[in-house]
Amino acid sequence: MTELLQNLIDGLGRGSIYALLALGVAVIFGVMHLLNFAHGELITVSGYVAFWTISEGWSWYLVTPVIIGTAIVTSLVIERVAFSRVRGSSDFTLLLTSFGVHFVVSAIFLLYVSASVKTFSEPGWVANTFPVGSLNIEVYDAVVIGVTLVTLLATSWLIQRTMFGLALRAAAADFDTARLMGVRSDTVIRGAFALSGLLAGIAGVFWLMRSGHTTPTVGITPMLKGVLAALIGGLGSLRGAVLGGIVLGLAEVLLRSRLPDSVASLTEGFVFLMIALLFIFRPQGLIRVAHAERV
Amino acid sequence: MAEPRGPNAAHAGMFPNLRRDVAFPIVGVGLLFGVFVAVGLLYQNSFGGAGERLVTTAMINAIIVLGIQIYVGNTGVLSFGHIGFGAIAGYTFAIFAIAPAEKIKRIPDAPLGLTDVDMGSWGAVGVAIAVTVVVAVFVGIGLARSGAESGAVAATVITLALLFVTHEVARHWPELTGGERAGLSFRIGGKLDTRVPIYLALAGALVLARLFAQSRRGRLAKAGREDDLAARAMGVNPMVQQMIALLTSVAVVSVGASLKVYETGSLLPEDFFFFFTLLTLTMLIVGGRNSVTGALFGVAVITVGRELARRMGQDGFEVFGLGLDSEPLDWIFRENLQTVFLGVAMLGFMIWRPKGLLSDWEFDDWLYRRFTRTQSAPPVPQATMSDENEARLEVSNVSVVFGGFQALSQSGFEVSSGEVVGIIGPNGAGKTTMLNVITGLVPATSGQVRLNGKELIGTPSHEVARAGLVRTFQNLRLFGSLTVRENVEVTRLVAIAEHDDRSTPETDVLVAAAGLWDHRDRRASELDYGNSRRLELARAAAARPLFLLLDEPTSGMSDTESLAMVEQVQTMAALVGAGVVVIDHDLDFIIGICDRIYCLDRGSVIASGTPVEIQADPAVQAAYLGSSAS
Question: Which residues make beta-bridge pairs with B416?
């Protein structure tokens, strides 16, 4: 029982980060029908910024806003340089464009920094734990879960209660009609990328705090988690993306602790397999998004 | 048993036209192969040992890229997983090919006693193909379940997951794969002693890729690529074509992967992962993913470009020996420039030329057009079909509810062969919903659709079409990048397979009858509105339906065009011996063409009868003109 509770909290912590990443993927999919394989690049870029600033002796309290800002700016720059040029293209083109962005960004770091791993120190409190009853809760997990909760509430308010949120929802439901109704496509798409960058930035801070290193390809894993979680939830559904992230985090932690030692290292493989099976039996993900094609 | 078959029976085989689809492709592919190899030999003679290695690698990459093209090009589904299949094939090949004495050093505890297996290289290739194809069957079922169609997002993510699963297994199952650092290495010969197996495999991959594209299966797959829903409505089941494309494609990739492993002499998880996926996909995209010629061309272009980038990364402009000063560009000429080159190539092509350098141009197709005299006069439509197939379509008590909205309530109509029946009604009356129910696109809440007494409710779209009900679409769903002829031919291929005992009009006859003879070799996407509508009609007729279901065939047409359409619909129906159900809100058109008319309003049939009766009916006038007329 204790072990299960412990797993649930670990999984919730991990799942929170995935949820933030997935939400960013889902927001962009909503307005552009683009599944963003370059989402992890926001963390790659942030990772190098963290490396440079921390080696200059900055504290994590200063680095955190810088990382979030970097992720937002990077997101907007990528939109301007690449995605704005393929708006309205076929899904095939959109998919490969984001794949291309991923490679260009990681190749630039390969070219100008190097392929080697750059490490930086994590904040001292990351590994600390505090006891609650018979449980040992990591400060890190508690902070992640708390911050994610606040972020999700704020995002929900933004989407449900503001003009921008209304435009975003309208654009996600029917982009062309939304434009005809006076929604500015540039504003809503850039807004979506900024929001996606913000969410990735927050997730990135936590990701980098834990991992303490960066490489040109460090973004692949978070990208994959975000994309998969968004799909598990049902692409286009923001609630689904959050749910998908939590489910993915819990599944990973529970599998890893339950699998026999000999195959525990294959956890990731099992998770992918389960996701493939989920798509086979429930292709639309956990939450179905009404999407009627007119014939 | 030699049943007498119709004059087109020979065409019902794998290839619609032996000269165009087999002879010319083989000649064309042979020439391409010759040029590719000749350029390679020329290059390696000028650059020696390093050049030789580069050319060998390029040829092996070409085999793998051609394999990917068979799936991605013909189905339009973007796969990141083919290199994952490559990994499965590569490891299988290595495990079965390495001599036990070598294996004991690397993987002494391999499961299933694989350490002691000694198959030799040829046997190992066979096992690699078999294992990979079996995996592909399961992945293919998953793709089909996920609703794979051109550009489908879920399908792409499934293939990406496959790439990661194979990578994870390769990394974390060292007993089988030698793990992340040690990997598998062996000396069956180190490098191949001769390039003959590579030449053979490359030639084979080229022929297979090209013949698949021209075959009946390939053509049906391409129809699905262009428009999944329209393909189903014409009787094509894209799932079947996708599976066949996937298995063929994976078999070719397996051969290429085995050769890659043999040639490299070692195997690490990284060899078949993200970077190789980027490399092969860039080659395919840059050349033109829909074209075999393009795929080969892309391999050449990217190989040269990447090599140039690699050397300029080291030596700047000195590569060209022109004495140019490369110092101002030192910030670009750095190590790893080649990786940037690949990423930029993929991104640039996606932004500025997403269909690649050659789009869907094929060398042998060009040869065929050049060296074949085309008939210049349009063929005269032959006398009408003898109308033996008496058929009757009965639609009764159909209701459809969308959420809380009753789109159809207890509606229906009847039509027999030789008749033209019209369904009219104002916008939102439920006319298109009626067609969607009949053709299996929208599930009915209740009701019956019977064709010659056989219930069709619940039958999948493509089977409804094969049973004899083929439709056109109000919002035009042509196979855009196929030519006018190909649009008609694809549906005709389905018809021939279904009714090979009946004669089906030739493609050219149908094209001419639709008044599209002058546009026969143009792409459907280039046609203007009126011609697109006529092509929809010809394409539906080519399926040899018992009933043609026309959804607003004159919408957006001028009065004169509408009149011409009346004649074309009648000609076409007579040509294939089909009854017609036509939906429109253009009263003049409907009255000009129909024997009987049903009037729908707010989901219910409010009147039915001859055109004269309908015109006089007060309820119809009310529905059309508003309550003041009642």
Answer: B392
**CATH number of the domain bearing residue A12:** 1.10.3470
Give the B window 73-132 contacts with A, CB below 8 Å: 76, 78, 80
Is B493 in contact with B16 (CB distance < 8 Å)?
Answer: yes
Q: Domain total for chain A?
A: 1
**Which two structure tokens, joined as six digits, stand for B111?**
């499961």
Q: Does B333 touch chain A (CB under 8 A)?
A: no
The Cα B578–Cα B79 span in angstroms is 41
Beta strands in A3-154 (DSSP E): 118-119, 129-132, 135-138
- % residues pLDDT > 70 (chain B): 93
Domain borders along chain B are 12-271, 392-629
Top pLDDT among A185 and B41 is at B41
Strand bridging mode B579-583 / B547-551: parallel
Per DSSP, helices labelled H in B526-610 are 529-541, 559-576, 587-593
Residue A129 counted as domain residue: no
Segment B344-357 shows an average pLDDT of 94
**ipTM of the complex as predicted:** 0.90
Which residue in the set A103, A228, A280 is minimally distant from B146, CB to CB? A280
Interaxial angle between packed helices A238-258 and A220-233, expressed in degrees from 0 to 180 and rounded to the nearest 10:
110
Give the whole-angstrom CA distance, residue B288 versus residue B291.
6
On whether the CB atoms of residues B508 and B379 are closer than 8 A, the answer is yes
Residue B399's DSSP bridge partners are B446
Confidence of residue B630 (pLDDT cuts 50, 70, 90): very low
| Residue A166: domain span | 2-114+134-281
Q: How many residues does chain A have?
A: 295
Put simply, whether A35 touches B (Cβ < 8 Å) is: yes
The DSSP line for A105-120 is HHHHHHHHT-SS-EE-
The total of other beta-carbon atoms located within 10 Å of residue B266's CB is 15
Q: Closest Cα of chain B to A149: distance in Å?
A: 28
Closest by Cα among A196, A20, A84, A40 to B274: A40
A283 to B154: CB separation less than 8 angstroms, yes or no: yes
> DSSP characters for A158-212?
HHHHSHHHHHHHHHHH-HHHHHHTT--HHHHHHHHHHHHHHHHHHHHHHHHHHH-
Four-way CATH pick for B392-629: 1.10.530.10, 3.30.420.10, 3.40.50.300, 3.20.20.450: 3.40.50.300
C-beta atoms surrounding A270 within 10 Å: 18
**Secondary structure of B200-241 in HEC code, one letter for each residue:** HHHHHHHHHHHHHHHCHHHHHHHHHHHCHHHHHHCCCCHHHH
Written as six digits, the tokens of B145 are 């379940």
User: Rounded to whole angstroms, how far apart are CA atoms A11 and A141?
Assistant: 9
CA geometry: angle B523, B485, B65, nearest 5 deg: 65
